Amino acid sequence: MKIAIIGSGIVGLSLAYDLSDKTNEVIVFEKEKDSLSHGTGRNSGVIHSGIYYIPNSLRSKLCIEGSKLMKDFILENNLYLKNCGKLLLPKKDIDLKTLEILYQRSKKLGINVKKLNSIDEIIKIEPNCNPIYKQALFIKDTSLGDPEEVSKKLIEILKNRNIEILYNHKVIKIFPQNGKLITNNDTFKFDIIINAAGLRADEIAKKSSLKTNYSSLPFKGKYWRVNFNNTKHMPKTLLYPIPNLEYPFLGIHTVYDKKGNFYLGPSNTPVFGRESYNFLHKFNFLEFLNLTFKFFKKIVFNENNLRNLALLEFKNLFLSHVKKTSNVYFKSKDNFSLEISSKVGIRSQIFDNKTKFLFDDFVLVKQDKVIHILNAISPAWTSSFAMAKYISKKYNLK
Length: 398
Ligand SMILES: Cc1cc2nc3c(=O)[nH]c(=O)nc-3n(C[C@H](O)[C@H](O)[C@H](O)COP(=O)(O)OP(=O)(O)OC[C@H]3O[C@@H](n4cnc5c(N)ncnc54)[C@H](O)[C@@H]3O)c2cc1C
Known about the structure:
Elements: E1 2-6, H1 10-19, E2 25-29, E3 46-47, H2 58-76, E4 81-82, E5 86-89, H3 93-109, E6 113-116, H4 119-125, E7 136-139, E8 143-145, H5 147-160, E9 164-166, E10 171-175, E11 180-183, E12 187-189, E13 192-195, H6 201-207, E14 214-228, E15 238-241, E16 253-256, E17 262-265, E18 269-270, H7 285-300, H8 306-315, H9 319-325, E19 336-352, E20 357-358, E21 363-367, E22 370-374, H10 380-394
Parallel strand pairs: 1-2, 1-13, 2-9, 5-15, 13-22
Antiparallel strand pairs: 3-8, 4-8, 5-7, 6-7, 10-11, 11-12, 14-17, 14-18, 14-19, 16-17, 19-20, 21-22
Helix pairs in contact: 1-5, 1-10, 2-10
Flavin-adenine dinucleotide is lined by residues 6-12, 29-32, 35, 37-40, 42-46, 48, 170-171, 196-200, 204, 221, 266, 345-347, 376-382.
């Protein structure tokens, strides 16, 4: 089979890795000059356990399976893996109820989670945190990887298999019935085209004349750099809040990388350009107008409580607020300082115009010779290898 993959983020690369065998000829199209310009090169690198997602949803299944596959790939290739575990720390009374829901869910899903019931137990796991409630959840199997290393290794393997990644090839039109694909450079024909264009997957769907009830809303995830006055104060276990299950975001948490950079983030503020990582970066006036209109309507009518979310998240743009609400993560506010960092990512979340809800799962749509992967939101990095296997099996691609 001749297969085109649009997008060389982690989803596109792991698909190419899974599908490239003797029977398939795979080509990857990428509009940028590299594979790390968007979601895959701008995330937290957390290999999630799957505790957050509704049982039996695609996110739940693929995250649990994907977490294992991602760790296997990392270990096989001697890449960075930190088995740090994660603590979920309540900050307010209502969190205790959610903590119990997540605990029961984890038991059902067979995820290794320990419920802690005293400050001593919590401190024993992470001496540098500052719990304010006696309860917490400890997820042993959460780990940290390095998304850049994983992508680079995949690219190397694909190169050895003679799989072409055509950089600077922007897909501008698809004819789903006959598999014709047009880029800014040339015209191609395929048996199958897979749309793995991340936060532009809905745009590709439009270029392929797919009609859906969805619109896509981008949210900016900004990180704050944490500078410790002594590295002994740095928490090694990842520290997360108890999430509001009404929203698909996890809340501001701690994260660090193999170089020792330590961050708090990401925020989730509405943004009016899908690639507006910095002010006016890749500014597109039409996109700005379109997104302003979409957000304005949803915020005015408070659809899916988006007004409340926007107000809540607006506060996360201020350093003083982030510092205040992160006090459970650090033993003393005198041990560290916060500063703005250049680390920022954007996640595009599908809004279902029929149900008026932010859609909370990965979405796959088959349209003639095209498979669209819509809403490849977090934890799509963790889930990528499992997602590739799932797509390959579901659509008989091997
Ligand atoms: C701030 C933040 C933190 C996150 N943290 C985590 C985490 O800790 N763990 C986790 O599992 N997930 C996390 N995620 C989610 C994860 O990063 C994404 O779900 C994942 O990277 C999506 O991969 P992708 O390949 O679909 O998208 P991308 O990496 O965005 O790749 C899509 C590619 O398609 C290309 N493209 C777009 N349009 C075209 C076109 N017309 N023609 C050709 N190419 C095109 C783009 O240039 C891009 O390179 C996070 C996301 C964000 C934003």
